[in-house]
Amino acid sequence: MGQADMFKSGRLTHTMLARYVYDRMRQLTKGQQMLIGRSPDGVPDFAIALMK
Question: What pTM does this model have?
Fold first, then answer.
């Protein structure tokens, strides 16, 4: 989970993961590519991984 858990809460949400992938892709491609995606309206952020 590591770096994608931006709040170091031991809980990874789909929004945190999307943000991490977006930032990392821009970093690796020096801004030449970016992730485009969107959650449907009304879908709350939810955990996809938990750490003990």
Answer: 0.76
